[in-house]
Design a protein that fits this description.
This protein is of the alpha+beta class. It is built from 4 helices and 8 strands. Helix content is 22%, strand content 27%.
Length: 182
């Protein structure tokens, strides 16, 4: 009987330490270039972009991950309301292609959600990949009555409550209504 196979360690046993800091005014050119590389021109046709067109960006809740002086990733967040309830909209999230499996995206999302919670946000809404965001606490369970400004696969509209009852309105009802500017 042979011994069980043990997978060889990959090139990185743990995620590299990214320097995550708030987005600054001078970061815009590097961010725009990264977003262009990550999403291409098709990013402007997405429903998430319609949200960003109306929702004010929160630079204090938006972060860049740096690795050795180069931009490794970015996450931006904006203010929205759903049925009169103030929420945060997360996106875009982009990571340089060679660093996507090293944890920068998850680190950025977690950092952004913690900052939103400290700022008093009830929940964070996004459009994204359920397997990736599901392991970060996001779910489509409470988003069935939320209406985006454009077509979205309902399985990809995800919410992460940051506070008790963050997935409900002030009367305790499930969140419902159109995503709008505050």
């Amino acid at each position: 009987m042979s011994a069980p196979l043990v997978p060889a360690p990959g090139p990185m046993a743990c995620p590299p330490p990214f320097d995550i800091r708030p987005e600054g005014p001078g970061d815009a050119p590097a961010i725009d270039a990264l977003l262009d590389r990550a999403f291409g021109p098709g990013r402007f046709a997405k429903a998430s972009e319609r949200v960003r067109e109306i929702a004010p960006l929160r630079p204090d809740l938006s972060f860049c991950a740096w690795e050795g002086g180069r931009l490794a990733g970015v996450v931006r967040q904006s203010e929205i309301v759903v049925g009169g309830v103030p929420l945060i909209f997360l996106g875009p999230l982009a990571v340089e292609s060679g660093l996507r499996r090293l944890g920068a995206g998850a680190q950025l999302v977690e950092h952004a959600c913690q900052a939103a919670a400290r700022a008093g946000a009830r929940a964070v809404l996004l459009v994204g990949d359920p397997p990736f965001f599901g392991r970060l606490g996001f779910s489509a369970e409470a988003t069935g009555a939320i209406v985006m400004p454009g077509p979205v696969d309902p399985r990809r509209l995800l919410l992460r409550p940051l506070a008790q009852g963050g997935d409900r309105d002030m009367a305790g009802n499930p969140l419902q209504g159109a995503v709008a500017a505050p």
